[in-house]
Amino acid sequence: MELNELEKIRIEKIRKLKELGIESYPTRANNNSTIKKACDEFLKTEQHECPDPCVFTLAGRMRSLRVMGKLAFTHIEDSTGKIQLFLRVNELGDKLQIFKDFFDLGDFIEAHGTMIRTKTGEVSLQVDDFRMLAKAITALPAAKEEIVDGQTVRYTGLTDPEIRYRQRYADLVVNPDVKKIFYTRTKLVNSLREFLNQNDFLEVETPILQPIYGGAAAKPFTTHHNQLHQDLFLRISFELYLKRLLVGGLDRVYEIGRDFRNEGVSYKHNPEFTQLEFYCAYFDYLKVMEFTEKMIRFAAEKTLGTTILTYNGIEFDLSKPWNRINMREGILEKTGIDIANYPDRNTLASIMKEKGMQFKPEMPRGKLIDFLVSEYLEPTFLQPTFLYDYPWEISPLAKRKPDDPTTTERFEGFIAGMELCNAFTELNDPIDQELRFLEMGRAYASDDDENNPIDEDYLQAMRYGMPPCGGFGMGIDRLTMLFTNSSTIREVLLFPHLRDRDNDSTEGETEA
């Protein structure tokens, strides 16, 4: 990689420091406190008028620099906060010149000294010794702060989303609000774990590399195990493995982990994403609905301290019961089509054409219904909403309703027009399950993403007896979007998948 002039200057500084016997990348740091702990300790001594000085060795990245003759000021930052270093010739002698000549913004510095409050009232470390911890060769994007109407306004040179996502390391340094997103994400995941653990669920881990993929309608990524001479797939769901555990007597299980789906990307899709799935013996989809409301309410309170959230200008209150809409009734209301009157693919496609709807001609009936939901219902679900009772054609793992074998006990949850979760009363009849798998194979073309292979081992597990149960899946990334008011999934992924720099094609990228 070709270096720019500034980088060449900084590399020259590294060489000169080495000539002086100063290591630019020492092996160890000797800091004995975080910045926040040091400041908190100093404030305590001030309050108690303690005569003993607060002496610390602190470390961090240099974020500002002012040199004024025999004085120098720099702010350093670690993950807990920021503090000013006060350097002057009185304490440092000739060593101050080394700081002035060789230290730059972005460098990591270790400083020893006494905590003071300057004449301007700022808590600072009066430095009596310092050293380089890591020299930054590339300068961080330019950033500055100013006070506007009593508020700190930050300007940064890193605003291009493409560069921010590719260079997340720089984005995190110069855009503090980005860090907040990922702290929030971690708190959110911890709160979900806490809730499930409190409700006697067992967290487990299931295979990521699977000989047969299943549990969702998606195309997998394929890989190969050289030693075993075996093609394997990155999982698209945890479902079939978690339900095997129900057969084994683990009545309440959950997993939080990564799934991988070889499909298009959009503001709410990424090829790899984090999912929460849980399965509970003796639950049905109605109990799962109630449990979902409680879980997401708990997560909001723990993570944000409130149940009232705003996303893209839409305010919603998670303390209130979610709306519940029957799919058949919802489609009828929005389109005038009663799907029960069109029991096969051709009759449903015909009425949809009459109404001027544009859809792929090869879609089977289940996908046509899914099209109606995504086009005419989803965008209207601004407040938390459960859409329930899905056709069996697009719910191969859900139990049929006792009074209507064409419909399954399945729901999906939506907030702000975005699908958030999916749940069933799980099918536990192995004979019906096998027939469903076979019917799906006949309904869809061999190269269709939804035509998953039959998992014979899963059917074998079911034959041992599976308790009646409810299952649930939710995208952690999308819930994080809602909790942080982030308009795209890329904002809540530390390293989102991006196309190659040299490939300008946007093929496969959608906004759906």
Automatic annotation (TrEMBL):
One Pfam family matching this protein: tRNA-synt_2
Catalytic activity: tRNA(Lys) + L-lysine + ATP = L-lysyl-tRNA(Lys) + AMP + diphosphate
Domain Aminoacyl-transfer RNA synthetases class-II family profile: 185-496
Residues given in the record as Mg(2+) 2 binding sites: E419
PROSITE patterns on file: AA_TRNA_LIGASE_II
Annotated binding of Mg(2+) 1, by residue: E412, E419
Enzyme Commission number, as recorded: 6.1.1.6
Main location: cytoplasm
GO CC terms in record: cytosol
Location of this chain's protein in the cell: Cytoplasm
GO MF entry, a single one: lysine-tRNA ligase activity
Keywords: Aminoacyl-tRNA synthetase, ATP-binding, Cytoplasm, Ligase, Magnesium, Metal-binding, Nucleotide-binding, Protein biosynthesis
InterPro entries attached to this UniProt entry: Aa-tRNA-synt_II (IPR004364), aa-tRNA-synth_II (IPR006195), aa-tRNA-synth_II/BPL/LPL (IPR045864), Lys-tRNA-ligase_II (IPR002313), Lys-tRNA-ligase_II_N (IPR044136), Lys-tRNA-synth_II_C (IPR018149), NA-bd_OB-fold (IPR012340), NA-bd_OB_tRNA (IPR004365)
Residues passing through the membrane, by range: none
Cofactor note: Binds 3 Mg(2+) ions per subunit.
Cofactor dependency: Mg(2+)
Domain of life: Bacteria
Gene Ontology biological process terms from the UniProt entry: lysyl-tRNA aminoacylation
Family: Belongs to the class-II aminoacyl-tRNA synthetase family.
Record text on subunit structure and interactions: Homodimer.
NCBIfam families: lysS_bact, PRK00484.1
Protein's recorded name: Lysine--tRNA ligase
Organism: Flexilinea flocculi
Taxonomic placement: Bacteria, Bacillati, Chloroflexota, Anaerolineae, Anaerolineales
